[in-house]
Amino acid sequence: MKYYLIAGEASGDLHGSNLMKALKEEDPEACFRCLGGDLMQQAGGTLVRHYRDMAYMGFIPVLTHLHTILGNMRRCKADIREWNPEVVILIDYPGFNLDIAKYLHAKTDIPVFYYISPKLWAWKEYRIRRIRRDVDAMFSILPFEVDYFHRLNYHATYVGNPCVDAIEAFSHTPQASENIETFEADHHLPHMPIIALLAGSRQQEIRDNLPIMLQATKQFTTHQVVIAGAPGIEPDYYRRFMPQDSRATVVTGETYRLLQHADAALVTSGTATLETALLRTAQVVCYYTAFGRLISLLRRMLLKVKYISLVNLIAQREVVTELVADQMTAEAVASNLRDIMPGGARRQQQLLDYDELAHTLGQSGASSRAARAMIKKLGEMKNEKRNK
User: Fold this and answer.
1) CB–CB of 6/97 below 8 Å?
2) What is the spatial distance between Cα 187 and Cα 387, in angstroms, rounded to a whole number?
3) Do residues 7 and 15 touch, judged by C-beta distance below 8 A?
4) How confident is the model at residue 305 (pLDDT cuts 50, 70, 90)?
5) CA-CA distance, 260 to 166, in Å (whole number)?
6) Do 357 and 315 contact (CB within 8 A), yes or no?
7) Which secondary-structure segment (H or E) carries 205?
8) Containing H/E element for 2?
9) How far, in Å, CA of 187 to CA of 229, rounded?
10) Are 90 and 115 in contact (CB under 8 A)?
C-alpha cells in the first residue's frame, strides 16, 4: 500500500520514521512519500519537503513566512492528489495538518488518520469539530487522551507512547552501557560532571531560551555545560548566543547519550521532557517567551490545563518544575536546578516519580501497535465501502 505521512518538526520526524518501519514490517509492499525530515527519509520515504522549511511558530514568524506556508500547503495537496495514496497519516502539527485534512475530506476519498493528536486538551478545543468531520481515525500516544476524546464524543485509540520505544531501542545499543569517559573522549570533553541543555528544536526556541539557560549555569563551576544540538540546526547557530567566555559545548545527534551521563538537565517543553524522564535524568522545564507577563496572563485565561510539560500532564501533578514565560529568569532556573542536582532537596522524589510515569505509559511497542491498528482500520473501511 501507499502511505503519505506529514510531520512538521523533529519529534514528528522521529515518531514518523519509527511508524514507517513498523508499517513496513506489517506490509512488506509499503511505500512512502512524506513531508518530514532526515529520519523519515532514511526509513524509506520519498521526502517531498523537509520540516525545517515548514517549522514556523508564533504570530510574527507565521505572518512573515505566510507565502512560504501557503505554498507548502498547495504543493502538498497537489502531491497527494497526484500520488493518490491509500491513506494520509498526519503527525501532530495541527495548524498545517488540519488544513490538509479538510481539503482531503472535501476533495478526495483518501482516508485521513491522525497519529499524535493535536493538543485540544490544552487549547483550541473547538478544533474537535474539524477532527470529527475530517479525520477518519485517531491514534493517541497519551493515555489520558482516550477519556478526553470520549467526553467530546470522538473515539481515539491509545497505542502506547513511541518515546518508550525510542528509549527501549537505545537501551540495546553499545552506547547505553558505556561509561562517561567514553562519551567525553568521543566529543573531546573534559572529565567533569555534566549539565545538559535542551533548548528546543526550532531556532526561535533556541534564541529565546539558550541565553537564559547559559546564564543560569554559570555558577555551577564544578560542572561542564553541554548543549544538545537539535536535528537540522547547525552548531554555529547555537554559538551566536554563547558569550565569548562560555564553557558550553555543542554536541549534535547524541541527545540520549548526553542525557544518560548528565547529572541534570534544563529542558524546553516538548517531547524532550518525556524522553529526559524516561532516561531518568533530573530536569527543570524552561520555556521563555517575550512579553512574559502578558503571556502568563493569557496562559491562565486560554489554556485549559495546569501544566505544559508532558511529564506533568501524564502524571496529572507536578513532577518537574515548570518555569514558563516571565517565571523563567536566570535566578529561578539556577535555584531550581540546584534542588535537583545530586544531593538536592527534590532530586530523589523526582526520580521516584519517573518510575510511576513509566508504569503509566506502559510497555514498548507503540509504533508496531499503531501500524497494526492502522492497517486493520484501513481493511475495515475498505470492507464497509464494498458493502455499500
Assistant:
1) yes
2) 61
3) yes
4) low
5) 14
6) yes
7) helix 203-217
8) strand 2-7
9) 13
10) yes
Q: Which cell numbers in the block locate residue 123? A: 487549547
**E strand intervals along 230-354:** 249-252, 262-268, 283-287, 322-324
Phi and psi, residue 226, nearest 5°? -125, 125
Q: Is 305 helix (H, G, I), strand (E, B) or coil?
A: coil
DSSP labels, 102-151: HHHHHH----EEEES---TTTS-GGGHHHHHHH-SEEEESSTTHHHHHHH
All three cell numbers of 289 = 517567551
Cα 201 from chain centre: 9
Does residue 271 have a pLDDT over 90? no
Structural domains of the chain sorted by starting position, each given as residue range(s) with its CATH number in brackets: 2-160+365-387 (3.40.50.2000), 166-361 (3.40.50.2000)
Q: Is 245 in contact with 214 (CB distance < 8 Å)?
A: no
| Predicted pLDDT of residue 296 | 46
* Residue found under cell 533556541: 206
Q: Sign of dihedral through CA atoms 176, 180, 184, 189?
A: positive
SS3 253: coil
How many Cβ atoms from other residues are within 10 Å of residue 31's Cβ? 17
Strand, helix or coil for residue 229: strand
Per-residue CA distances from 62 to 35, 43, 57, 90 (Å): 18, 30, 6, 20
Rounded distance between C-alpha atoms, residue 366 and residue 166, angstroms: 10
Alpha-carbon gap, residue 127 to 92, rounded angstroms: 13
Q: Which residue has the cell 552506547?
A: 175
Strand partners, 251: 228
Q: For 150-159, 167-176, 287-296, which range has the lowest pLDDT when averaged over its residues?
A: 287-296
C-alpha cell at 339: 534542588
Q: Using the structure block, give the residue that is written with the C-alpha cell 554563547.
A: 242
